[in-house]
Amino acid sequence: QVQLVESGGGLVQAGGSLRLSCAASGRTFSNYAMGWFRQAPGKEREFVAAISWSGSNTYYADSVKGRFTISRDNAKNTVYLQMNSLKPEDTAVYHCAACESGKPSKDYEYDYWGQGIQVTVSS
Known about the structure:
Elements: E1 2-7, E2 10-13, E3 18-26, E4 33-39, E5 46-51, E6 58-60, E7 68-73, E8 78-83, E9 92-99, E10 112-113, E11 117-122
Parallel strand pairs: 2-11
Antiparallel strand pairs: 1-3, 3-8, 4-5, 4-9, 5-6, 7-8, 9-10, 9-11
């Protein structure tokens, strides 16, 4: 089992920045690729970003490319999502997730999920 806890969400004005953190506990963190997904009210969950177990490979949704950066610190068992130039359409509940293998942009590949954290971007 892997437990994931997100932090760092909140309310920010358009154009602002937030950094989300996801702290992992349980099994060896470095065994897992990590991803961020988000779900806005009335919409399906969508892929945001992912990072390989070593951190050498990163993946982004087109909608966040150039604005968001995913990173990880295996010594701290933590994955981060730096979000810059935020837009109102980025408003959603953000979840981090862990997967052992598979396509990093597909939510069905992920084995463990955090409870989610709200990000609200005002216009």
